[in-house]
Amino acid sequence: MTESANPFESLQSQIDEAAAHLDVGQDVVERLKHPERVLETNLTIELDDGSLERFKAFRSQFNGDRGPYKGGIRYHPEVSRDEVKALSGWMVYKCATVDIPYGGGKGGIVVDPRAYSDAELERLTRAFAKELRPMIGEDRDIPAPDVNTGQREMNWIKDTYETLENTTAPGVITGKHLESGGSEGRVEATGRSTVLAAREAFEHLGKELEGATVAVQGYGNAGWIAAKLIDEMGSSVVAVSDSSGAVFAPDGLDPVAVKTHKNETGAVTGYPDAADELTNEELLTLDVDLLIPAALENAIDEDLARDVRADVISEAANGPITPAADGVLAETDVFVIPDILANAGGVTVSYFEWVQNRQRFYWTERKVNEELERIIVGAFDALTTTMDERGIDDPRTAAYVVAIQRVVDAYEQAGAWP
Ligand code: GLU
């Protein structure tokens, strides 16, 4: 690693890069680069042995010009204030890229959830929900799953909120269990948009998806679904990884069998039908048609970028490529589908979930997937049109140009206050 990029600085440099192509004053750009507010709180809960432990937690509300703040809550030992600020900013521009009526937020608890019991995690989640209660709401700020959180945590937050507010408000949070107001297709949505965006990029570049080789870094919810769906579309998933390392098979892996192995053993490594095992760095530099980083920020730094041999990268994770690495990949003509488009399926189906919650009327999986495809294809078209019309080579900058303009328009149309 040549650097450990601060994600908040990465976000700010991405905004600066795009703003240079827009007729937006520096004073407005300044506003777009900072969160409106950040909650920092300390949660003290009782552990199963009767002792107490304190956990630091954050919620950043970055920008609400286009609608309620929206974005997930992650549980990870590396969560920090700057990371949460960056992730909340990426949500603003993600929602604007796919043109859904939300601003951006993000939260996190500094915790390694593997070290705690289910009962401890429930107490921790409910303690956070109690702190969040005054600032969230169906029309105010709507959390969702992120790294190491899922339906279970969302349901605990919903229940805590509804109990304290003495109401029913399923739209206060998305990513819930189906029986508790969740949406069909929500669990698969991030992986689905990652491959839909890749499909559009391949078509744009005149490349065939059928028979294309694919490597996936990270085998959590986004990575594993992306691997499964792209395999179903006729591509060959030659390598996948998690924090234990990577498995490789030049003739293709069976993504479902690897997932079963991971469920049974806790890791993708040791999968018996692999030809070889690699490190995560080796996976990221494989000579493949498509690379899907689906883990955490900063997976590809400047040094590693020089060795990347993929033709297309579809970012299932948020912020997996540092700005310096982006510069290298632009020189080597790698087509990078930015996170704010590629993984926007998650928040898009969260939006569908919220719409269904508000209407108390639920859609079929087919309708969810059709609407998702329409939105992702439309956003990809807007991106390539902007690249052509403005002569921008870098898809990330083009996505930010579209997104920033939408946020600025909403801000200016609102008029001055106070
Ligand atoms: N955590 C996901 C993201 O980073 C989903 C957010 C949401 O559904 O609100 O996009």
Structure at a glance:
The chain is α/β, with parallel strands linked by helices.
Q: Care to count the β-strands?
A: 12
Average the pLDDT over all residues and give the rounded result: 97
Extract low-pLDDT stretches.
none
> How large is the count of helical segments?
15
Largest sheet: 7 strands, mixed
Rg computed from alpha carbons, rounded to a whole number of angstroms: 20 Å
Query: Based on helices, strands and strand pairing, what is the structural class?
Result: alpha/beta
Instruction: Name the shape in a single word.
Output: globular
The strands making up the biggest β-sheet line up spatially as: 9-8-7-6-10-11-12
Helix content: 40-55%
Bound molecules: glutamic acid
Intertermini distance? 46 Å
Helices and strands, in order, run as HHEEEHEHEHHEHEEHEHEHEHEHHHH
Strand content: 15-25%
Structural account:
Helices cover 45% and strands 17% of the residues. The protein has 418 residues and is of the alpha/beta class. The strands form 2 sheets. The chain has a 7-stranded mixed beta sheet, sandwiched between helices. The chain is globular. The structure holds glutamic acid (GLU). The site of glutamic acid has 12 residues, from strand 3 and helix 13.
